[in-house]
Amino acid sequence: MCRASPTEGGREMARICFQGVTRHFSGADEPAVADVDLEIADGEAVALVGPPGAGKTTLLRLAAGLELPDQGRVLLGSGGDGEQVEVVLLYQNYATYPNLSVRDNITKTLPGSRSRQDIEANLDEVITLLDLGALVRRPVSSLSASERMRVAMARSLVRRPGVLLMDEPLANLEPGVRTDLRDRLVAAQRALRVTALYATEDLEEARAVADRVLGVQGGRVA
Description:
Elements (H helix, E strand, L loop, with lengths): L14 E9 L9 E8 L4 E5 L6 H9 L6 E7 L9 E5 L10 H6 L8 H14 L15 H13 L5 E5 L7 H18 L2 E6 L2 H7 L2 E6 L2 E2 L1
Parallel strand pairs: 3-7, 3-8, 5-6, 6-7
Antiparallel strand pairs: 1-2, 1-4, 8-9
Helix pairs in contact: 4-5
């Protein structure tokens, strides 16, 4: 049972709470997610590790509100109903605007509660955290794959979401580049105190990015 908690210093708490959550897709023999009870604390990073089809992506989509549980419920925030917590979902197949500069990609208005003024105010911090200062005026079309991923990360983090959901965002990158980006992402998540849920098949990566690592198999979390 997830416990309600007050705001901290005027800032809304951004917990993720699964209460007895089951999701069964039509035509499937077994549920994609089965009776999951899980609480992720405000500012905590949790990694979900498991093979393809284990239920990791479904858990992320449930947290994002893109799927609705057949049983149970998912709560975001301090534990009460009706709260508005901004959620960003980052995939390995990230989208950028190739003809725009790095800066304009980061500040490009996306659906959400943050105004453009808020985003501009956070821009310098995120650019520094992800080491994009030398690239801000360049068009994204001129960047490498790892640099474009940094831009996508910056665009997600500049919104200061309460919750950041990541579905194997580094899976398509070369090992050396992947490690560098992983470390930058961890530093940014901790500096900004974003509550994070990270799905991966790689146990080593899970241990590097998360405060807590959980196994997922057959739609169940251990």
